[in-house]
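Usage example:
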Amino acid sequence: MSAARSVRALSALLRVGALEALAYRGQMLVWVLASTMPLIMLALFGAVAHEGPVGRYGEPQLVAYFLVTFIVRQLTSSWVSWQINMEVRDGTLSTRLVRPVHPLLAYAAEGAAAAPLRAVISLPVAIVLLVAVGWRELSSDGAIWLLFVASLVGAWLLSFFVSASIGALAFFMESSVKVTDVWLAVFFVFSGYLIPVALFPARIQAVLDYLPFRYQVGLPVELATGVHGRAEALALVGRQWIFVLAAGLGMRALWQRGFARFSAYGG
Amino acid sequence: MKRYARLLSAQLRLSFILAAQYRADFFIDGFIEVLWTSTALVPLLIVFRDRASVAGWSFGEALVVVGFFTLLQAVLEGSVNPSLVAVVEHIRKGTLDFILLKPADAQFLVSTSRFHPWRSVNVVTAGAIFVFAFRTLGRAPSVGSVALSLGLLAAAIGALYALLLLVVSTAFRAVRIDNVSELFVAIFDAARWPSSVFRGVARFIFTFVVPLALMTTVPARALLGVADGLEVTGAAFGSALLLVIARWVWLRALAGYSSASG
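Running the assembly step on the lines above writes:
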C-alpha cells in the first residue's frame, strides 16, 4: 500500500473513530466519571496534607497532582486488550484481516480518535484545577511543557503497546482479560496514579525508574506540576521513549507469532 | 416464605455448579482479588509511614475500615453485582420478559440469579486484615462490639444492594448506558477510607446521598467500640429507608416497562 493511501485510510479511520465515540457519548461520559480513583486518593492525601505536608507535597501541590493525573489518564488510557480479546473469541478479528489496513493501526486510530471527546469531558476538571490552585502549582517553563507533550504522546503509545501486547496473548491462551487485571492492579499502585512516585521509600523509587509503569502516568504529571528541572526531565522522557520502543517491538513480535496461530484455526 | 427459601437454595446450587466447572478460576480470581485489595493498603502504608494519625484515625483503626470495605467488596463482586448487572443485559436483549412470566417475585429472581463464589475470596482477606488491624492496635474487640458490628454489616449490605438496585432501575429508561453500574462501583471505591478524610461537599454526599459512611465507617467504629447510639440508629434507619425506596423505584420501573417489543 502506498504512503498516500495509508494516510487517506488513517484519516478515514480517525473520522470513523471520532464519530463512533460521539455516538456512544453517554457510555463515554460514564467511563470518564467512573475514573474517580485520583479524586478518592486526593481525599486521603488532602486530609493528610491538611495536618502537615507529605514529603515534598503540600495541600495545593496534591490537588494539582491528582487533578492532572485524572486528565492525563483520560488522554492516555487504552482499553484495546479487552477489544482484542473479544474479537479473537467471537471471530470478528477475521473481518479486520481482510481489510487493507493492519488491525493494529485500526485499533490505534480508533483509540486516538476518542481522545478529543475525552479532552472535552476532562476540560471541566482542567478549569477546576486552574480556579482551585491557579498556575502556581503548574510548571512555568515552556521547554518543560514541550517535554510534557512528548511524554504525553509517549505515555499514550506505551499504554497502547502494552495493552495490545496483552491483547495478543489471547492468541495463545483462552482469554488474557485476567492478565490485564493483574497488570492494572500493579500499574495502579506503581505508576503514580494512586500515589505520587516521590512518596515511595527511596529504595522502591529506584526500582520504579526501571519499570514501565511510571512512564505511563506519573512522568507527564510530574512534568506538568513542575517537579523536575530541564536536564532531569529530558533524561526521564528519553528513558520513557526507550520503554516505548521496547514495548512496540514486543508487541510486533507477539502479533506476528499470534497471527500465525490465529490463521491456523482455519477461520 | 418457605418457597422463597427453596428457590434461593436452588439458585445458589446452580451458581455453585457453574462455578465448579471453572475451578482454575478459584486461584486466578482469588489472586486478582487479593492483588486489588493491596491497592487499598499501599496508600495507607505510605501515609502512615511518618505520622501516627490521619483525620483522627490511627493506622490500626483505618485498617478496620479497609477490612469492612474489603468484606463489602467481596459481597458486591460475588453476589450483588453479577445478578443486578444481568438485569441490564436482560432489558437490552428483551429476555427480561421470561423472568416476569415466572410465578415468583421478579426482584427476588433477578437478585439471586447469579453468584460468583470465587470472587468472594476477599472475605478471607478481610478476616486477615481485621486480625492484623487488632494486633496493630494491641487489643481484641469485645463480644458486644462484634455483635453490633455484624448487625451494622447486615445493614450495610442492605444499603449496598438497595443502591445498586436503584442504579440498575435507571436501565429501564436509559438502555444505552449499559455500563452505569460501573459508575456505582467506582463511587463505592471511596468507602475505603474513614469518612472523616472527606471534607465539605464530599463529606455531605458520602453521608447522606450515597451513604458510604454508614457502610464501612460506622461498622468499623462499632467494632472499635466507639460508635454512639445516633450513628447506629442512623445507619439502621438509613439502610431500611434505602431498601424501601429501592423497592418502590423498582416496582415503578417495572410498571413502566413495555418489554422489548414496545
